[in-house]
Design goal:
By secondary structure, the protein is an alpha+beta fold. The protein folds into 2 domains: 5-77 and 96-177 and 268-345, 3-Layer(bba) Sandwich (FAD/NAD(P)-binding domain); 180-266 and 350-385, D-Amino Acid Oxidase, Chain A, domain 2, CATH 3.30.9. 38% of the residues lie in helices and 28% in strands. The strands form 4 sheets. It has an 8-stranded mixed β-sheet with strand order 6-5-14-15-16-13-17-20. Strands 8-2-1-12-19-18 form a 6-stranded mixed β-sheet, with helices on one face. Helix 1 (12-23) runs parallel beside helix 6 (101-114) and helix 13 (357-372) crosses helix 14 (374-385). The longest helix has 23 residues, at 327-349. The radius of gyration is 21 Å and the shape is globular. It starts with a strand and ends with a helix. The structure holds 8-demethyl-8-dimethylamino-flavin-adenine-dinucleotide and P-hydroxybenzoic acid (PHB). Residues 8-14, 31-34, 39, 44-46, 101, 123, 126, 157-159, 161-163, 265, 284-285, 292, 295-298, 301 line the site of 8-demethyl-8-dimethylamino-flavin-adenine-dinucleotide (RFL).
């Protein structure tokens, strides 16, 4: 088989790139290790930056998102019972949109399938060959039969545990990593959200986040030690912990119910440099991870796709090489800023096991400064709604 761009990974990054390139007449094949249903069963991000929304529109897959998503003009932040609001639209002119990653991915799959896009599921042993030459190719097996795809370029959109990043030799690649000493226990419940905006809560009992998917589907998180197992967290224990971490006036209004999903995710900051090697480009979680505190995981994936999409269009349609040559440089400039914001939000809002009383006072002072200072709120808002591409 032959294609112009072979895309490894059928998560949101790979599907969005495939759909955008298709609209410009550039041929792709997507290789996905799992099935569509498996990918859609993952509960992940919920907050989309305007840049992501614009890419979905450009890809022609925004109809349901435009109808069913929720526009959020601000967010609530709290320290124990003290809470304040940050108004994104006032400070930046731009809101964010709440629409689950599951729905984004479903819309992209539907669009790819409706247009006859080539997605190959259940691929095993995907291997990238000759990425440093002008004739790269990818091999894989499905049900024990080996296949080969010759291509011009390879997009590594295969997430943190994929093969693409590991294809770049160790002596070329530098990994930067920080692992946090806690995780997030998240639940999904068919209950109305406690508030119409998100609540990011710093409390003496640990961090909590109140988020949502729709008017009757809530997503809540609490910070837990890395050693905790999800089985140790009954629904009752979860609701009690959540109520003890958000301001009393919200805790009183919280409607609880059975969880329909419950999982623990570790928190990590990670970046690999460079994000390209010959004709292989890394996108999304394959190249970088943020702790979810800034809601940047999916959004940083989208900015990579923006840079790579424009680079490939400039190459194929206008014969320009600059975008391709400078992909890694451009993508990383924005990635590191999102890494910084996510790290800062994580440090601001969580309880750290080795925190001293002095450290706690610094955290409280920083939150008080944020509460009382318009410029500090503007800086947070600018980062939260997404820096320009
Ligand atoms: P994905 O979504 O991981 O998709 C990669 C796809 O590649 C496939 N794959 C392979 N296919 C072929 N061959 C191989 N060798 C392959 N290896 C892997 C996988 O099956 C998968 O389908 O990466 P992508 O597309 O870059 O998208 C990134 C986002 O998914 C990610 O940044 C966010 O979901 C991160 N994230 C969150 N971000 C937020 O902004 N808010 C959240 O609440 C949030 N929660 C989360 C998260 C990530 C999590 N992970 C990765 C453990 C919760 C979790 C649990
Ligand atoms: C979510 O809704 O899952 C969510 C929202 C905001 C975050 C992280 C996760 O910062």
């Amino acid at each position: 088989m032959r294609t112009q761009v072979c895309i490894i990974g059928g998560g949101p990054s790979g599907l969005l790139l495939s759909q955008l390139l298709h609209k410009r007449g550039i041929d792709t094949i997507v290789l996905e290790r799992k099935t569509r249903d498996y990918v859609l069963a993952r509960i992940r991000a919920g907050v989309l930056e305007q840049g992501f929304v614009n890419l979905m529109r450009e890809a022609g897959v925004s109809d349901r998102m435009d109808r069913e998503s929720y526009v959020h003009d601000g967010t609530v932040m709290s320290r124990n019972d003290d809470h304040f609001r940050i108004d994104f639209t006032h400070h930046t002119g731009t809101p964010v949109v709440v629409y689950g990653q599951t729905e984004v991915t479903r819309d992209l799959y539907d669009a790819r399938e409706a247009m006859g896009g080539k997605i190959i599921y259940n691929t095993d042993g995907v291997t990238i060959h000759d990425a440093k030459t002008d004739a790269p190719y990818v091999t894989y097996t499905v049900d024990g039969t080996e296949f080969r795809i010759d291509c011009d370029y390879i997009a590594g959109c295969d997430g943190f545990h994929g093969v693409s990043r590991k294809t770049i030799p160790d002596n070329v690649r530098t990994d930067y990593e920080k692992v946090y000493p806690f995780g997030w226990l998240g639940i999904l419940s068919e209950t109305p959200p406690v508030h119409h905006e998100l609540i990011y809560a710093n409390s003496d009992n640990g961090f909590a986040l109140c988020s949502m998917r729709n008017a009757n589907l809530s997503r809540y998180y609490v910070q837990v030690p890395l050693t905790d197992q999800v089985e140790a967290w009954s629904d009752d224990r979860f609701w009690t912990a959540l109520k003890s971490r958000i301001p009393g006036e919200f805790a009183e209004q919280l409607i609880t119910g059975p969880s329909i999903e419950k999982s623990i995710a570790p928190l990590r900051s990670f970046v690999t440099e460079p994000m390209q090697w010959g004709r292989l480009f890394l996108c999304g979680d394959a190249a970088h991870i943020v702790p979810p505190t800034g809601a940047k995981g999916l959004n940083t994936a989208a900015s990579d796709i923006h840079y790579l999409y424009h680079a490939l269009v400039a190459h194929y349609l206008d014969g320009e090489a600059e975008g391709i040559d400078r992909y890694s440089e451009k993508a990383l400039l924005r990635i590191w800023k999102a890494e910084r914001f996510s790290w800062w939000m994580t440090n601001l809002l969580h309880q750290f096991p080795d925190q001293t009383d002095f450290d706690r006072k610094m955290q409280s002072a920083e939150l008080a400064f944020l509460r009382d200072n318009d410029s500090a709120q503007a800086v947070l808002a600018e980062n939260y709604v997404g820096l320009p591409y």
